[in-house]
Amino acid sequence: MATTAAPAGGSRNGAGPEWGGFEENIQGGGSAVIDMENMDDTSGSSFEDMGELHQRLREEEVDADAAAAEEEDGEFLGMKGFKGQLSRQVADQMWQAGKRQASRAFSLYANIDILRPYFDVEPAQVRSRLLESMIPIKMVNFPQKIAGELYGPLMLVFTLVAILLHGMKTSDTIIREGTLMGTAIGTCFGYWLGVSSFIYFLAYLCNAQITMLQMLALLGYGLFGHCIVLFITYNIHLHALFYLFWLLVGGLSTLRMVAVLVSRTVGPTQRLLLCGTLAALHMLFLLYLHFAYHKVVEGILDTLEGPNVPPMQRVPRDIPAMLPAARLPTTVLNTTAKAVAVALQSH
Amino acid sequence: MAEAAESPGDRGRASPRPLFAGLSDISISQDIPVEGEITIPMRSRIREFDSSTLNESVQNTIMRDLKAVGKKFMHVLYPRKSNTLLRDWDLWGPLILCVTLALMLQRGSADSEKDGGPQFAEVFVIVWFGAVTITLNSKLLGGNISFFQSLCVLGYCILPLTVAMLVCRLVLLAEPGPVNFMVRLFVVIVMFAWSIAASTAFLADSQPPNRKALAVYPVFLFYFVISWMILTFTPQ
């Protein structure tokens, strides 16, 4: 602040002594007041003031230059113009750099401060909200309360990422870990943010009373059921158990979200549209997470690359291999198959 | 007033001058003492000059830094209520630990395309990205700890897990079997608990007392993922 202020003040005083000096000559004793005023301006603490001051100084400088141009002494005039321009340029640069730095630092701190209220929770609150996310409340006449908080949802998404990684490992999925990690993070955050925005958009169309923050919190806590189901079924490989949990736990958390949305929407068509979309997306996502990373990828990898490939599936590839003339297409086909396998791995 | 006397014509010389023009009119009353202690800055500068590291040999410099890192390792292995890790933070220890862990988790397979193990870059990214996330979370929860202090503590507390990785690699040299796995599981669980305990001992004080659980949960998740990678590691 001090460094930016000093050249600005210097340029002002350096460029405009005609005016200042003239005024002071007339006013005499009043000069102290004027000087103090100047000092107050240049040591002002807000950048808006600085900007305004800077603008004003530039205007004054232009005036001063115009006045200086009328002087007779040509040689001295050139020197003076050069000095004025230099100091102005330096002041300009300093001011710009200072402003950029300050605004960057300010925006970083401001962002953290803006987010801080959403993380203002107690452990007991988080615990009760996690439990409540599994208990649907049948109250449709009055809008149900949604806590606008992001700590729980964010931690649940990270937990889901960890559980997905765990599941991929236990299922012995041979897959490149780098893409696997990226996929886990991308899937979870993509679902949370993407579906929240989509439902928010639908809610806007259906005239439901819900904000984006509430939607994020609602869907985030809805992922608690997913975490439980996936954590249990990745460790106990039983399809019947998974379907039971899928219907029971996943269904309960979905029902909770649906109940909240129903209470905040007016009109049967809108309710059906909004809640049907949300319920379908939420339940299918759980199904997808269980099977896509657990069974299907494994199956595809076995088919394409595994050592114990069933002979039935090799038939189309083996036929051209017997003909020497068709050697080249075979390799091409094999490469394509490999490419497909790689592409499937990464998804 | 000084400005008024000089201003007509002599502008080039006057330009730095009027900055202090206003000061010339401020009168200081006699009873306020203007002098102050000016020996203190001089003395501190001299001391700084004495302890300058420019003259010492490179070996001394490296040994001193290594000693500092080693001392912090000891603090992690035997967590006490001490602020050394927080006060003089550095990122050398975390870098060394992270690179060691990533190198040991790398598989020796030549064909990296079909390699199922974690890659060097991945471990590196997990450690740093995870630490940054935890730090931001603790900042958002209202913790009074600086960004790099938290990174330093989280990085140093990987040390038990790096030791666990070393033990696992040694155990894996032996014949694979259920006993082998049980040994590795035991080592990893113990070291995982150690990491959590050490990082909690350092970080918990910076949080508001009622929110310690919220700040510790992501730390738990972070070390859990790393332990999981260590436990499921196989050399082939």
From TrEMBL, chain A:
Domain of life: Eukaryota
Region called Disordered, residue ranges: 1-50
Topology in the lipid bilayer: Multi-pass membrane protein
Membrane-traversing stretches: 150-168, 180-203, 215-234, 240-260, 272-293
Location relative to the cell: Cell membrane; Cytoplasm; Golgi apparatus, cis-Golgi network membrane
Keywords assigned by UniProt, alphabetized: Cell membrane, Cytoplasm, Differentiation, Glycoprotein, Golgi apparatus, Membrane, Transmembrane, Transmembrane helix
Function comment: Involved in the maintenance of the Golgi structure. May play a role in hematopoiesis.
Family statement drawn from the similarity comment of this UniProt entry: Belongs to the YIP1 family.
Descriptive protein name: Protein YIPF3
Organism annotation: Galeopterus variegatus (Malayan flying lemur)
Organism taxonomic ancestry: Eukaryota, Metazoa, Chordata, Craniata, Vertebrata
Gene (UniProt): YIPF3
From TrEMBL, chain B:
Main location: Golgi
UniProt-listed InterPro entries: Yip1/4-like (IPR045231), Yip1_dom (IPR006977)
Topology versus the membrane: Multi-pass membrane protein
Highest taxon listed in the record's lineage: Eukaryota
Yip1 domain: residues covered: 76-229
Keywords tagged on the record: Membrane, Transmembrane, Transmembrane helix
Transmembrane segments: 91-108, 120-141, 147-174, 181-203, 215-234
Pfam families named among the record's database cross-references: Yip1
Subcellular location: Golgi apparatus membrane; Membrane
Family affiliation: Belongs to the YIP1 family.
Protein name in UniProt: Protein YIPF
Natural source organism: Galeopterus variegatus (Malayan flying lemur)
